[in-house]
Amino acid sequence: MAVLVACTVFPGAGSPANAGDPAQGERVFQYCYSCHSVMPGETNLQGPNLAGIIGRPIAAQNDFAYSPAMRDLAARERVWSESLLDRFTAQPEAVAPMTSMQFHGVDDPAERADLIAYLRAIPRP
Predict the structure, then answer these.
(1) In whole angstroms, what is the distance from residue 58 CA to residue 114 CA?
(2) Residues 6 or more apart whose Cβ sits within 8 Å of residue 93
(3) Closest CA to 42 of 61, 23, 22, 25
(4) Which domain holds residue 44?
(5) How many domains does the chain have?
(6) Tens of pLDDT along 36-79?
(7) Is the pLDDT of residue 16 over 90?
(8) Which residue of 56, 66, 93, 123 is 20 to 30 Å from 42, comparing CA positions?
(9) pLDDT given at position 67
(10) Distance (Å, rounded) from C-alpha 112 to C-alpha 105?
(11) Residue 25 CB neighbours (<10 A)
């Protein structure tokens, strides 16, 4: 999300107990929806489309002008893993210093797990 959110890795990420609830994650996505879409092909918002973000190369949406901070993150991390999304959604500025994203992050690890479960459930376009 060019206006995603950031965090620290939560213990047991990917385990059934911490896999998150996609239905709850859709609610958490309300933090993001004013700048991001998960509808494949929708690109008319301030941030890049997030459909299929997990496993996708960072800063790779062809029709989006990424900030230098996101291009730097892409050079360091390459793809959006669930653990990177967790860290980023907790503290975007800590993961991508000087990001143009105007979002403070999601503090609650359970909310981040739900958000990631929701994003995981959205198919790649």
Answers:
(1) 21
(2) 6, 99
(3) 61
(4) 16-121
(5) 1
(6) 999 988 888 899 999 999 999 999 998 899 999 999 999 999 99
(7) no
(8) 93
(9) 95
(10) 9
(11) 21
Contacts of 110 (CB under 8 A, 6+ apart): 20
Orientation angle between helical segments 109-121 and 82-90, nearest 10 degrees: 130
Judge whether residue 11 has pLDDT over 80: no
- The CATH number covering residue 70 comes to 1.10.760.10
Does residue 97 form part of some domain?
yes
pLDDT for 123 beyond 50:
yes
Query: Any residues with CB less than 8 A from the CB of 8 and at least 6 apart, and which?
Result: 86, 87, 90, 91
Average pLDDT over residues 97-116: 93
Tokens standing for 74?
């892409």
Angle of CA points 23, 24, 26, to nearest 5°: 70
Per the prediction, the chain carries an average pLDDT of: 86
